[in-house]
Amino acid sequence: MSETQHHVHVHIEQENIQTASDMDLFDDDDMEDTESQTRSQFDTPKYVVLQEASAMDLDDATSQPPTRTALPDKREKRVADSVLPNKRRIKEVDYSETLRETVYSQKELIHNMQTQVEKQKIEHEQNMNEMKQQWETTLRERQEQLAKAQEEIELAQEQVQREAELCEKLAQHEEELKRKTNEEAEKESELAKMEQRFSRCYRSQNEDVDMNIPTVPGDAGQPSPCAKPWPGTSCLDAIKRIKRTQGISHRVRLVSVASEVDGEEVPQQHSSKDVPPPPQHNAQPAMMMEDAIVRGVEAALRRVLIDKEFPLTKKHSPRRKKVEEKELRQEKAAEKSYERDFLLGEVRRLFKDIFSISQDSDFMLHDPASHEDVYAYEYEDGPGPNCKHLAFDLKELQRRGDQESWPFRRSEAYFREVLQDHYKHLHTVWMAAQPKVTAKGGLETPEEVEQRLITKKDEALKVTHQTTCQKNKYLRRFTVLNHLVKYKTNGNKEDLPAWQWLQRLVRMLGEGGMSLEERNIENDIETVLRVKNMTWHHVIE
Question: N or C: less crowded end of the chain, CB within 10 Å?
Answer without folding.
Answer: C
